[in-house]
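Deliverable D4.2, example record:
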Amino acid sequence: MQESVQQIKRVLVVDDEEGMRTTLAANLELEGYEVVEARDGVHALELAGQQAFTLVLSDVRMPGLNGVETFRELKRIQPELTVVLMTAFALEKLIEEAIVEGVYTVIYKPFSMDHLARVIARAVDAPAVLVVDDIPKVADSIVSVLRAAGLSAHAVHDGRTAVQHVIERSVDVCVLDIVMPDQDGVATCAQMRGLKKRVTVIAMTGHSVPEMVSAIMSKGGYTCLRKPFDARELIHTIARARGDAAPE
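Output generated by the structure prediction step:
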């Protein structure tokens, strides 16, 4: 797999239902992606061993290898691969496993093709999480947890550096402390969202600052987590935010 897919944006669609697979492929081709179809998990692994993909869109419930098992094997073949899962079933245990192991997001059927297009457009753009906290130990520990879960994550320790990071690098989610010296989270969120509306801001705070929470939500914040929060709560919130992919 010598070729680069940075410009190609090749998507592998995996679904055992031929009608669904064909419909998804046709719509993604209309969005400008090169699309390859796989009839099941085993077929997907064969294809991934032959060519590089930017992203895999896979059903969860399939005969043989299910979508989560396929996701795990695909990541062994192409560790940097972004995987989006889709399901019509409430498979809580499987979904939980996939999210904590680094799947980009899970979208639930039925979904509109417009919604899918938004999710895919964000997912193919080398997605990463930016963690912003003026206490380096806190920011770095959150990044360590996210990386351990298979997510690409980076830390900065002030609002101005965070805004510059968003300008220079690909970031789709920012986990942002609200109360910080010099430039607080509200101002930072406003600047980020003004530059790139695709950046989803998940606020966090250990202080009782309802006015600031309201302000950051009014500027496009997705939600606010109260410190200290469980690592799984944050990972699930990131996956849910990515799957929501609100219109810009």
